[in-house]
């Protein structure tokens, strides 16, 4: 699933291409992608016509991201929100093509200049329209925690959020979108490795310096991932179809059984917080006593 760095990379690529353009035609090829207002898909027979009508001739004034969602803000105040889920893609074509859309293209937005396509092989993603951007902001305030790339993501704010869950594992806490938004399985493993913290340790066992290390690691890993265009492991690509290159810099994710690039120990794999987790037992000892 595309995480914060992937969605941020897509948004940064689309901003200069979409801002100032208007939607002149919307073609929905798969109605299951169109959701009602809210975070959950609520498809009805009238959803597609209402979706199309609400977006026609709307001028895009901003492109942004919140957690793992992308959004377009229009001059009228409306807001189009989307989630890529497992296999979603946002693709941009500068010139109008006469060829038929690819087999996984679900929605086509023809713009005053260029075309934006939403593709999704497994069709888990969704698109929805909010009448006002403030409605989307209200949803975000209730559903999402700290934004790791924002100025609000301070060591103190981060520690305060975590300390409310002393018995929860580090991995489970970092995956909770109401604590820190945008982190998924890939970057959780990478963050824990950089911070030298075992992902299975309970939050209550972390020392102050370890909380600071986690905070620093989150910012470092996510910013580096964005700089490299994210991690193209499965279906994820940038709007121009190119792959992100951060997967080449992964230290532990997907590398279980291989040598640790820091200490040469064999990387381990364990199920933590319901997710397959890669880590180095030597660099990230599970027992707190080992750290004393």
From TrEMBL:
InterPro entries: DNA_glyclase_Znf_dom_DNA_BS, FPG_cat, FPG_Glyclase, FPG_N, H2TH_FPG, Ribosomal_uS13-like_H2TH, Znf_DNA_glyclase/AP_lyase, Znf_FPG/IleRS. CDD domains: EcFpg-like_N (cd08966). Keywords: DNA damage, DNA repair, DNA-binding, Glycosidase, Hydrolase, Lyase, Metal-binding, Multifunctional enzyme, Zinc, Zinc-finger. GO terms for biological process: base-excision repair. The keyword Zinc applies. Residues 2-125 form the Formamidopyrimidine-DNA glycosylase catalytic domain. GO terms for molecular function: 8-oxo-7,8-dihydroguanine DNA N-glycosylase activity; class I DNA-(apurinic or apyrimidinic site) endonuclease activity; damaged DNA binding; zinc ion binding. Pfam families: Fapy_DNA_glyco, H2TH, zf-FPG_IleRS. Its cofactor is Zn(2+). It catalyses: 2'-deoxyribonucleotide-(2'-deoxyribose 5'-phosphate)-2'-deoxyribonucleotide-DNA = a 3'-end 2'-deoxyribonucleotide-(2,3-dehydro-2,3-deoxyribose 5'-phosphate)-DNA + a 5'-end 5'-phospho-2'-deoxyribonucleoside-DNA + H(+); Hydrolysis of DNA containing ring-opened 7-methylguanine residues, releasing 2,6-diamino-4-hydroxy-5-(N-methyl)formamidopyrimidine. Monomer. Belongs to the FPG family. This is DNA-formamidopyrimidine glycosylase. It comes from Candidatus Ryanbacteria bacterium RIFCSPHIGHO2_01_FULL_48_27. The lineage of its organism: Bacteria, Candidatus Ryaniibacteriota.
